[in-house]
Amino acid sequence: MGEAVQTPSGSGLNFDFSSANFAQLRDLVFEHTGISLSDEKKQLAYSRFSKRLRALGLSRFEDYIQLLGESDSDELQDFISAITTNFTSFFRESHHFDFLAQEVAHLGKTNKRIRIWSAGCSSGEEPYSMAVTLLDRVPECRNWDIKILASDLDRKMVETASKGVYSLERLNGVDERIKKTWFMKGRGANQGMVKVKPELSSLIEFRQLNLLHSWPMKGPFDIIFCRNVIIYFDKSVQAQLFKQFARVLKPGGKMVIGHSENLAGVTNDFKLIGRTIYERV
Questions:
Q1: pTM of the full predicted structure?
Q2: What backbone torsions phi and psi does residue 253 show, to the nearest 5 degrees?
């Protein structure tokens, strides 16, 4: 069975977690998300999935793994949510939004129909930041045909994103004028919360999507943001994904990835034109 570990928890309840348990969960993670968990992630896997055992009232990882193997298991979505990392913020890596404004303004000179994709939108801060950027910095685009597709593997994140409601703290660091112009403050029971204005929501379509499965949309897109997503995939999965991204991007379309990611050795379909900004060749 291999080495077993026990890890302290806030509830005082520990679970045996063997190397075989980890191997089975790692295979399930890869099958359903494409994320590759290295051996160094064993402690992380324990931490994330032991919470699911407690929530379900299970005492063994073997029982949890068996539950995940049942074809009609409702747990699978919670399993995916447990392992995916959903850290994000408004206007994260601000130079990408500077580029977005410039590129959309340039595209609009010859084409008023623009399609953008936020792939891996998490809880929605990225696509709403896109919408703010477009309406605030390229105001003429309000009369154009612009749509943002926002997708994520985690259905719960998509549901959260589509509501457009956040704690006021999530806007820390955002310019006061932007806050006042594009967000509505909650009152009464909703004090301390903000909601994006309808003008932003109207630009965005939210959709649950596993990037490793078939893509119902065919494009073509003008710009795709896929930031801090591929870092969790191995090179073979990355190569597969970017072949598909190239298919749905227009020739000359732009691909934006995360600051710790690069496409070297992954694809020949893109050339680097800026800080983690690529152009489809």
A1: 0.84
A2: -65, 155
